[in-house]
Amino acid sequence: MSNSNKTVVITGASSGIGFALAEAYLKRGYNVVGNARTAARLQAAAAKLGNPANFVGVEGDIAQAVTAKKLFADAIARFGKVDILINNAGIFTAKPLVDYTEDDLETIVGTNLKGFFYPSQQAAKHMAQNKQGHIVTITASIAMQPTMKVPALLPVLIKGGLNNATRALALELASSNVKVSAVAPGIIATPMHSTDEGTQAFFKTLAPTASTGVTQDIVDAVLYLTDAQFTTGVVLAVDGGASAGTW
C-alpha cells in the first residue's frame, strides 16, 4: 500500500472525459480508482492505460448506493485515503419535453443525480474526517444558459440542480477544508457525439466562438480546480462562451 501519492476516484472512467481524466492523473503519479458499469469496460480502459499498478477498477451502477460505498472502501483499503472525487458519470439526452419517456427520466435521475449524490456523500464523510479533499462534478453549460436550438429539459433540470448543489456543498464543507466545484462543459468532441459533418457544423453554432471543445479542455479545468486552494463553490463553464449570454 502506498500513501505517499494522492488518490482520485473517477466515475464514468472507461471512456470520453472520464478516461482522459484517469490518464491525466496517472501521468501525475496519482492513484486512480475508476468506476464503470461493467468489468469488461474497466479492463479495456486499464489495457489502454497500459495496465498501471496504481489503477483500480470498481464495476457497478453508480446510481446504487452500494457502488459508491464499494468505490471508497476499495480505494481506502488499497491506497489509504481518497483526496479527490470526480463525479463524471453522466448521460445527456436532448429532446423536446413531450418526447421524454419514463425510462429516460429514470436513467437520467439514476446516473446524473444519484450518481452525484451517493459518491459525494461518501466523499464528504471521508474527507471531512481528513480535513482535506476536493470534489469536482462535471455538469453542463446548457444548464446555465438554456437554448432554443437544443431542447434538453431533463439535463437542464438535473445538471442545473447539480450546479446549485455544488455551491451549497462548498459552503457546507468549507470548515472541513474540503473544496467543492464543478466544470460545466459545452459541446466536447467525445464518443457521445456524432462525427457526422452536418452535426459537427450544427454543434459549432452552439458557441459564439463557432467552435467545439476537446476532452483536454475539460481535463485542464478539472486539474486547475483540484490544485486550487482558494477556489471553491464555483461552476466553471468550459463552453466557448455559450453560457455568457445570447449572440
Structure commentary:
The chain has 247 residues and is α/β, with parallel strands linked by helices. It has a single domain, classed as 3-Layer(aba) Sandwich (Rossmann fold). Helix content is 44%, strand content 15%. The chain is built from seven helices and seven strands, in the order βαβαβαβαβαβααβ. It has helices at residues 16-27, 39-48, 65-79, 102-130, 153-173, 197-204, 215-227; strands at 7-11, 31-36, 55-59, 84-87, 133-138, 178-185, 235-238. The protein has a seven-stranded parallel sheet, sandwiched between helices. Strand 5 (133-138), helix 5 (153-173) and strand 6 form a beta-alpha-beta unit. Helix 1 crosses helix 7. The longest helix has 29 residues, at 102-130. It starts with 6 loop residues before the first strand and ends in a 9-residue tail after the last strand.
Topology:
Blueprint (H helix, E strand, L loop, with lengths): L6 E5 L4 H12 L3 E6 L2 H10 L6 E5 L5 H15 L4 E4 L14 H29 L2 E6 L14 H21 L4 E8 L11 H8 L10 H13 L7 E4 L9
Parallel strand pairs: 1-2, 1-4, 2-3, 4-5, 5-6, 6-7
Helix pairs in contact: 1-7, 3-4, 4-5
Q: Key features?
A:
Rossmann fold, single chain, seven-stranded parallel beta sheet, 7 helices, alpha/beta, 247 residues
Short summary:
The chain is α/β, with parallel strands linked by helices and 247 residues long. The protein contains seven helices and seven strands.
